[in-house]
Design brief:
Length: 535
């Protein structure tokens, strides 16, 4: 049985039905409101049945694949076997020759985030609509506390997420430390469904935390069964690197890459790993961008430490040549932190993903349009950091990893969906095609091709860092909790339909931690009971 009772439904608002066609959405790049998407003809929305049969496809889970039919009722997978017979009132989708897979789960996004004097142009609705068009049916976003207040941050993000059109969960960032924060972490875990906290080792003067806080945070996370996550770059080093570039007169986007080289990412990754080892807490390293960081993770894993490494799509397939582009607007698109690295890091990260050193793929989707990026026209330090990816992640990972022969089809499901559900403790409700799981399903046609352009994407941003990329593996259908939301190049999404998914603590990565703790204590052979020397 799945523990259904712990999931809370937040009331949908506003209840607007939208039919979005690719055509209507393109060219609308305003920041606010749904209106700029344009309303399509919504008459066929009511026809989508609560009963659905996916016929003849190859059903893929992380550990197995087989040809079977999948029958869905009321948003839940009801049956998986061959030749399911149904009555006429059931909508039937033919998936012959195609893959039927769990919808993607993106572990790393920033929607409606206020950052560097701007707010990301994708809010929960537009970012999620884009994600659904690309086969991702759930994401986990980062709540930022309000002046260090976690409860206030959580409530603010629930409000931001009211217009959600797909399921979502939250991580939370810890940006300062005191008794209140420590207490509130427990409330977040016990009552609010948050089971992971992120610590920034970079962004000196704003989010950055020192080692003392990192240690306290890791201890607290471990006690609560919450996963500690780190943005691993040496913040003092970054500040010094930025000053060095400015002193050299390097003020353009290339200065961003030059100011925070891989050595700073490697150092912070190694430090976080060693501190987590000292505390004996599991650790999750977000957006691993360099060989330097990846090798620290590999080394720790070889020694038996539990470290999870998350590459992001941009780090897996882009290289830093863009940052030297003579057109500022093009170069600035690629500014994110840690930076996109020199060619070579991309291939090494792909290899690490294929061998399991890195386990799941995120995007760090954090979109700013050209106008917002131009805040840093005179100074790369003011360019809002972030790239797109929620819509592109699934097809690009398929094309880069499966089509190239680096991983199997089952591995694709593991790294884009199942492992994320397991690490954040919502498996098998999410991340699997099993009886009783949520019907978050995609149909991928391995023979069809995709092409990515800013004119046809569904994000509100007016650029795309994957502009012009073509590949094999097209997401033809996306089903979100039993409803077809993407088919024939058309989105049918509903603002307010997405639910907040609570994530309970103590996922599998905590299993056995207490045994390691007792082994540690008994290895100390201390205190030594000494008797006073008799004179
Ligand atoms: C895709 O190609 C493979 C191999 O040629 C074939 O078996 C399969 O049926 C094709 N699928 C579709 C949907 O065309
Ligand atoms: C944090 O914010 C919540 C909700 O806004 C408020 O009720 C609470 O008193 C605040 N906590 C502290 C320590 O200021
Ligand atoms: C904790 O919150 C209370 C108000 O709820 C406040 O009076 C106190 O100063 C806070 N403590 C710290 C260390 O910020
Ligand atoms: C680096 O990226 C550019 C732009 O996408 C591409 O043309 C080039 O081939 C890449 N370099 C290598 C060595 O892959
Ligand atoms: Zn991020």
């Amino acid at each position: 049985m799945l523990p259904r009772t712990m999931f809370k439904h937040f009331s949908p608002f506003p209840c607007v039905f939208l039919v979005l066609s690719t055509f209507l959405v393109s060219g609308s790049h305003q920041i606010s409101g749904f209106g700029d998407f344009g309303y399509g003809d919504s008459t066929d929305f009511g026809l989508s049945s609560s009963k659905l049969l996916i016929k003849g496809g190859t059903v893929v889970n992380a550990h197995h694949k087989e040809v079977a039919d999948v029958y869905i009722e009321d948003g839940i997978i009801a049956s998986i076997r061959s030749n399911i017979k149904v009555s006429d009132d059931v909508t039937v989708i033919d998936a012959t020759g195609k893959y039927v897979m769990p919808g993607g789960i993106d572990p790393h996004t920033h929607l409606a985030m206020e950052f560097m004097g701007s707010e990301t142009i994708d809010d929960f609705f537009s970012g999620q609509a884009a994600a659904l068009a690309g086969g991702t049916t759930m994401h986990i976003d980062f709540v930022l506390p309000v002046n260090g207040n976690l409860t206030a941050g959580f409530e603010k993000y629930l409000r931001k997420a009211k217009n959600s059109c797909m399921d979502y969960g939250f991580h939370m960032a810890i940006t300062k430390w005191d008794e209140n924060v420590s207490k509130e972490m427990e409330i977040m875990v016990r009552d609010k469904g948050i089971n992971s906290f992120k610590f920034f080792m970079a962004y000196k003067g704003s989010f950055m935390v020192n080692d003392e806080l990192l240690l306290q945070g890791f201890e607290r996370c471990k006690a609560l069964g919450a996963l500690a996550m780190v943005h691993a770059e040496n913040g003092d080093g970054v500040a010094a690197g930025q000053k060095r570039m400015i002193d050299l007169g390097i003020t353009g986007p290339e200065g961003h890459a030059l100011s925070r080289p891989p050595v700073l990412e490697g150092e912070a990754t190694a430090r976080a790993i060693r501190l987590a080892r000292f505390v004996n807490s599991p650790l999750y390293v977000v957006h691993v961008m360099s060989i330097d960081a990846m090798e620290e993770i590999a080394k720790a894993q070889k020694e038996g430490q539990r470290v999870i490494g998350e590459p992001v799509v941009s780090g897996l397939i882009l290289n830093d040549s863009w940052l030297w582009h003579p057109d500022f607007t093009i170069a600035a698109m690629y500014v994110m932190s840690p930076p996109i690295r020199k060619s070579g890091h991309d291939k090494a990260l792909q290899a690490a993903l294929s061998t399991g050193v890195l386990q799941l793929v995120g995007t760090d989707h954090c979109t700013f349009n050209m106008e917002q990026k131009s805040l840093g026209l005179e100074d790369f330090r003011k360019i809002p950091n972030g790239v797109n990816g929620m819509e592109e992640r699934m097809p690009l990972v398929w094309d880069t990893m499966v089509e190239s022969g680096q991983i199997s089809v089952t591995d694709f499901v593991r790294i884009t969906s199942t492992e994320c559900a397991r690490v954040f403790n919502i498996y098998p409700r999410k991340g699997a095609i099993l009886v009783g799981s949520d019907a978050d399903i995609i149909i991928l046609n391995p023979n069809a091709t995709f092409e990515i352009t800013k004119d046809s994407h569904h994000s509100r941003t007016d650029t795309n860092v994957y502009e012009g990329r073509k590949g094999k593996g097209k997401i033809e259908v996306t089903i979100s909790r039993g409803k077809v939301v993407w088919e024939n190049g058309k989105l049918k999404v509903e603002a307010g339909a997405g639910r907040y998914i609570k994530m309970p603590p103590f996922s599998y990565v905590f299993d056995g931690i207490e045994k390691a703790d007792s082994a540690y204590l008994s290895s100390l052979h201390a205190p030594v009971h000494r008797h006073r020397a008799s004179t």
